[in-house]
């Protein structure tokens, strides 16, 4: 109860980075099992793993992944519930909300709310379904509610982005003050695209699949344009500054990694939708896109670690908490 009261009285949309990170950890463990363990069609379930026949190393590895996934799911659900209560209280303070939206240097901090909720839907289908057979077996019955929820996120994401762009257009805005945390909206676009692409390839109903696919393609296109535009300004700012940002902001460099992976996976899932809408096959392109985005993500990790070597040696353990640290997670 103390935590709930603390969140409600000191709410910040960036709190949702914690629930997003917990969901991401659960999904990472699930994805490893999904592709490593032979099973039938659809998502893997706990009962698909024949624990008694596993070699020792695999038994330990899969056991650790399940042991990580289960509490991560619980933490994601609990934090999402707590943060939603704080969000509703915060939204009732109209002037505070308007003030944040109209601040071009802080309004991007609102996007983790949408990103975390998009992750919640994915956690429900996959990690929760891993532990609850009824969810996995009834996945098709969740497709229509999932499409409705995806539609709400889609509208909320584009509406919020439109307001943010309006504030930027009114200016004057010093783009030199932005850092990699400015990519929070692109991160949300990637998560919503992952959500929509999951519906598009999972739904047996062709209408649901097509609607989700069309909206996902729009989300990917806009997200990639935003990514390219913002990266141009961020790289330019860094080259002009000729020095690293302040210490609390440095971990934000890593936020580009999940963004690249999210768009890579979403593009990889899209060939059936592109063939439906435009009557051409881009399967080979999608595979190349996935490989390129993951290669770029690995390269950026190496680059960021080398660039921030002093930060990890001197400040990482001793520094106080700052929201950009979630970028490493």
From TrEMBL:
InterPro entries: TsoY-like. Keywords: Membrane, Transmembrane, Transmembrane helix. The chain crosses the membrane at residues 12-37, 57-88, 108-130, 142-160, 180-201, 207-228, 249-269, 289-312. This is Uncharacterized protein. It comes from Candidatus Dehalogenimonas loeffleri. The lineage of its organism: Bacteria, Bacillati, Chloroflexota, Dehalococcoidia, Dehalococcoidales.
């Amino acid at each position: 109860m103390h935590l709930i009261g603390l969140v409600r009285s000191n709410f910040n949309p960036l709190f949702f980075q914690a629930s997003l990170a917990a969901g991401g950890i659960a999904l990472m463990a699930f994805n490893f099992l999904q592709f490593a363990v032979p099973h039938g069609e659809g998502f893997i379930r706990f009962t698909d793993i024949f624990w008694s026949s596993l070699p020792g190393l695999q038994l330990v590895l899969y056991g650790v992944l399940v042991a990580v996934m289960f509490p991560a799911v619980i933490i994601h659900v609990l934090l999402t519930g707590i943060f939603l209560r704080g969000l509703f209280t915060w939204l009732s303070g109209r002037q505070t909300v308007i003030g944040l939206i109209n601040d071009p240097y802080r309004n991007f901090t609102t996007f983790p709310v949408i990103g975390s909720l998009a992750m919640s839907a994915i956690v429900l289908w996959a990690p929760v379904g891993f532990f609850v057979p009824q969810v996995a077996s009834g996945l098709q019955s969740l497709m229509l509610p999932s499409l409705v929820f995806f539609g709400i996120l889609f509208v909320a994401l584009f509406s919020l982005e439109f307001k943010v762009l309006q504030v930027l257009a009114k200016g004057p805005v010093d783009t030199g003050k932005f850092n990699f945390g400015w990519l929070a909206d692109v991160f949300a676009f990637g998560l919503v695209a992952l959500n929509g692409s999951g519906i598009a390839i999972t739904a047996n109903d062709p209408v649901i699949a097509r609607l989700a696919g069309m909206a996902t393609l729009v989300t990917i296109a806009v997200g990639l344009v935003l990514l390219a535009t913002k990266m141009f300004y961020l790289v330019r700012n860094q080259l002009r500054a000729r020095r690293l940002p302040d210490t609390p902001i440095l971990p934000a460099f890593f936020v580009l990694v999940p963004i690249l992976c999210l768009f890579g996976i979403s593009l990889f899932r899209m060939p059936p939708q592109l063939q439906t809408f435009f009557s051409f096959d881009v399967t080979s392109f999608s595979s190349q896109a996935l490989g390129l985005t993951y290669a770029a993500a690995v390269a950026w990790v190496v680059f960021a670690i080398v660039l921030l070597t002093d930060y990890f040696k001197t400040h990482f353990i001793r520094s106080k908490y700052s929201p950009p640290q979630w970028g490493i997670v």
